[in-house]
Amino acid sequence: MKHIHFTSFLTNNAEFEKNYIEKLVGQCAHKKFEKDAFLLREGEECKYVFFVEKGLLRQYYLDTAGKEHTIQFAPENWLISDRDALFFKQGAQYFIQAVEDAEVLYIEEDLILQLSRQDAAFHSYNNQLLHNHIRQLQKRIRLLLSATAEERYLDFTATYPDLLMRLPQTMVASYLGITPESLSRVRKGLAEKNQRRIT
Amino acid sequence: MSIKHVEMIATPSAPHYVGDGFRVHNFIPSYPRMDMKRMDPFIMLDYNSKFHFPPSERPRGVDVHPHRGFETVTIAYKGRVEHHDSSGGGGVIGEGDVQWMTAASGVLHKEFHESEWSKKGGEFQMVQLWVNLPAKHKMDPPKYQALENSKMTKVPLADGNSWVEVIAGAYQGHQGSASTFSPMHIYNVKMKAGAVADFTLPTNFNTALLVIEGSITINGTEKAQGDQMALFANSGENFSVLADQDAIVLILSGEPLNEPIAAHGPFVMNTREELIAAFTAFNEGKFGYLE
After folding, report:
1. Mean pLDDT throughout A16-29?
2. From A195, which residue of chain B is nearest by alpha-carbon distance?
3. B174 and chain A: CB distance < 8 Å anywhere?
């Protein structure tokens, strides 16, 4: 039973026929990665959007001082890619790495373009996914420019409810744009406020 | 007298690490026919078979993590584990001891090899069992029961050199010290070669045993070796265990709760909504804070 998540992802989000989904899924490669393996490295060519069937990926870049900054996490049912490298044929600016052992579906850019041309339903669905992605990025910019560390942390936990337990604190901090010590203070502060209100 | 027959002998699957301190074989719920429903109220059993950990200045273990909705029962056979939790509690689980933690509405805790033990290293062997809580007790306050081996109820067997340690429930009318939220019996049976122990456990109780040491014969016919788990059918009440060699056997038998289960990671609730609420509560610090 391969690609269970991707099939239900398509079924739950758009009105595609079953044989259409099977055909689409059948054209995607399925690969397994061990923790810490790279799916994409800075400078490489990127030809795929990755869909996570199992495990956890992250996308990050290194600044000029060599410090890591996390752009996005992708647990099960998430899509992740370097859009710049994929659609504008630039060398990748990001690393995409497995944070846990992972199983990933490789969706080729050509397949996405071809289906978008041929099928109005797919085109509209793909547009919806892109709009959602842009909305998410806009919110992230807004939070990084003006929100408090606590607000950013709470947004992170709302976006990724179970990742706090699956990620090292340093990676969470690098996503929030704060130091691990600040993250510790935020979590401690919240616990002091909320601890006695078990719900 | 109706015999409780062995339904399956399970050989441990490939081990995996929990944190870096527990090298475990999972039986419940991943082993075929040992899922949460079949084994209800036992929802998880990880077995760290005997394994030699080399000396380490930095204790190995599992860092801070939450639990809600069930109880964790840690049964130590070899090695020592130190634990701390968000309510300020903590302690050391030594060889032969059992720690029964009722996570219920929620705790944060961490478990590491005890620091002095870790510096020397050595043989490590433990079981961690998760016992589900009835829906009406899932949001009770958390609590601990530290069951020290020296204070455990020990019922001698006929050979005079073997005994049954009653962790929970009762054996032949002798009550164990752990209090439980649903009816169950958990024993460590410590037997010399040739000893025989007889058990009478209700038909509907989900029942299994794990051979910790030695090898045994169940009901005069079924052989089980060290590290194997025997699952009993839900028919009959009586079974016997003969120690073919000196043996230690963990016996679990519990009345099923027969309630819906919504489980994800360290939370075991009854509905998806309760599961989401558990994640939210954890993320918002409602389980407290632990460095």
Report:
1. 81
2. B286
3. no
Q: Cβ distance A42 to A62 under 8 Å?
A: yes
| Nearest residue on chain A to B265, alpha-carbon basis | A162
> How is B8-33 classified by DSSP, letter by letter?
EEEPP---EEETTTEEEEEEETTSTT
Chain B CA closest to residue A156? B283
Q: Where are the domains of chain B?
A: 6-254
- B284 closest CB neighbour out of A162, A184, A190: A190
Show residues of chain B in contact with A194, CB under 8 Å.
Answer: 284-286
Q: What are the backbone angles phi and psi of residue A198, rounded to the nearest 5°?
A: -70, 125
Q: What is the pTM of this model?
A: 0.86
- For the cut 80, the answer to whether the pLDDT of residue B291 exceeds it is no
Interface pTM (ipTM) of the complex?
A: 0.76
Q: Distance from A189 to chain B by nearest Cα, in Å? A: 8
Interface with B, mutate which of A76, A150, A162 (most B CBs under 10 A):
A162
User: How many Cβ atoms are within 10 Å of B96's Cβ, its own excluded?
Assistant: 17
DSSP tag of A92: P
Q: Which amino acid is at B271?
A: T
A165 vs B265: CB contact, 8 Å cut-off?
Answer: yes
User: Exposure string (b/e) for B216-232, b if CB count within 10 Å is 16 or more?
Assistant: bebbeeeebebbbbbbb
Q: Does A120 touch chain B (CB under 8 A)?
A: no
Q: What is the pLDDT of residue A198?
A: 43
The answer, for B16 touching chain A at a CB cutoff of 8 Å, is no
Determine the CATH number of domain A4-118.
2.60.120.10
Helix, strand, coil proportions of chain B in percent (round to 5)? 10, 50, 40
In angstroms, the CA B202 to CA B95 distance is: 30
**Tokens encoding B93:** 């689980």
Q: Any chain B CB within 8 A of the CB of A191?
A: yes
Q: How far is CA B188 from the centre of its chain?
A: 11
pLDDT for A2: 61
- CATH class for the region spanning B6-254: mainly beta
Distance between CA atoms of residues A32 and A35, nearest Å: 10
Chain B CB within 8 Å of residue A47 CB: no
Chain A residues with beta carbon closer than 8 angstroms to that of B286: 191, 194-195, 197-199
Tell me which residue in B105, B264, B283 faces A198 most closely, judged by beta carbons. Answer: B105
Give the span between the Cα atoms of B236 and B253, in whole angstroms.
13
Report CA-CA distances (Å) from A179 to A173, A185, A186, B69, B190. 6, 10, 11, 33, 52
B64-103 residue pLDDT tens = 899 999 999 999 999 999 998 887 778 899 999 999 999 9
Q: List residues bridging with B38 in a β-sheet.
A: none
Q: What is the pLDDT of residues B110-134, one digit of tens each?
A: 999 999 999 999 999 999 999 999 9
